[in-house]
Amino acid sequence: MKKTALVTGANSGFGKLITMRLAKQGYTVIAGVRQEANAKKLADEIEQAALSTHVHIEALDVTDTQSIQALKKTLESYAPITLLVNNAGTAYAGFAEEIPVDTYRQQFEVNVFSVMNMTQAVLPLMTKGSKIINMSSISGLMGMPSLSPYVSSKFALEGYTESLRIELAPFGIQAALIEPGSFQTNIWDTSMHNQLQEPPADSKYNTFYRKVKSHMAAQQPNYGDPSEVAELVVTLAEKKHLKRMRYLIGKGVRLSLTAKRILPWHLWENIILRKLLSKK
Fold first, then answer.
1. Number of folded domains in the chain?
2. pTM of the predicted model, to two decimals?
3. Phi–psi pair at 200, nearest 5 degrees
């Protein structure tokens, strides 16, 4: 079967690496990019990598239904689509009491509703053997203070994908989640760190804020190589059967998740609080 993939958020981070790695694997890749300037930059990098014949850059704003429908018409000429990688995403941070509810709406618009919209658009162009890979996060399995917008959106994505996978199974279309830990991608620079702004001087969350920022800074040198995620996408794309629904990747994620699952909640909670609120 001809191998054709659609990757959203293809201009940077995981998306760019996934696009290039799939192209090297022989896929025809439709790379969805929102901004024209980013599309031009990606085109230059693809040309330098001698992958221009395999990658087709298309305008795509995953939060705009008209943009998605316009892309769908283009995709018809590539059908069947054998792989959809819902990678586009962003991250908002802050403390739940202080974050405007509209910020949560914006978070869900990008990380959840866009995935639903893209999936509905592409599924009619898929056939038996096609796959949908949704980019989740370890944050879709455990909550952390100051990250409730991002965490809650990923929890929602996890539930959606569970239902989707079962619905599609009778038709031979498979859905799965990739759940990375912390990797060196620009979501941390352009989203998370920029969103976690210092609370007002009289905020009761100032101690939390300082500890979380300090923890993020301390952990950054340990972030993983994002090319590992791109390799995982190719590995899953080439598998005949995705027997698992969740694929964890990253330093320490299995240990953290195992600890959360086996420890009583009060012990798990105390570990987090001690780490973030210790006087060290």
1. 1
2. 0.91
3. -55, 155
Q: What is the DSSP letter of 32?
A: E
Query: 147 φ, ψ to 5°?
Result: -120, 20
**Token pair in block for residue 205:** 């969350």
Rounded to whole angstroms, the Cα distance separating 20 from 12 reads: 11
Cα four-point dihedral sign 151, 152, 155, 157:
negative
If residue 271 lies in a helix (H) or strand (E), which one and from where to where? Answer: helix 265-277
- Mean pLDDT estimate for the chain: 90
CA dihedral 123, 127, 131, 136 (to 10 degrees): 10
Cα–Cα nearest to 61, from 98, 114, 19, 97: 114
For residue 185 the two structure tokens come to 């991608």
- Rounded to whole angstroms, the Cα distance separating 146 from 258 reads 22
pLDDT at 195: 58
90-129 tens-digit pLDDT = 999 889 999 999 999 999 999 999 999 999 999 999 999 9
Tokens for 100, please give them: 């405007």
Decide: helix, strand or coil at residue 52: coil
DSSP 57-85: EEE--TT-HHHHHHHHHHHTTTPSP-EEE
pLDDT of residue 164: 98
Clarify whether 92 is annotated catalytic: no
Strand partners, 147: 94
Instruction: Give the structural domain span for 117.
Output: 4-277
**Which residue among 27, 92, 150, 209 is the active-site one?**
150
- Domain harbouring 69, CATH code: 3.40.50.720
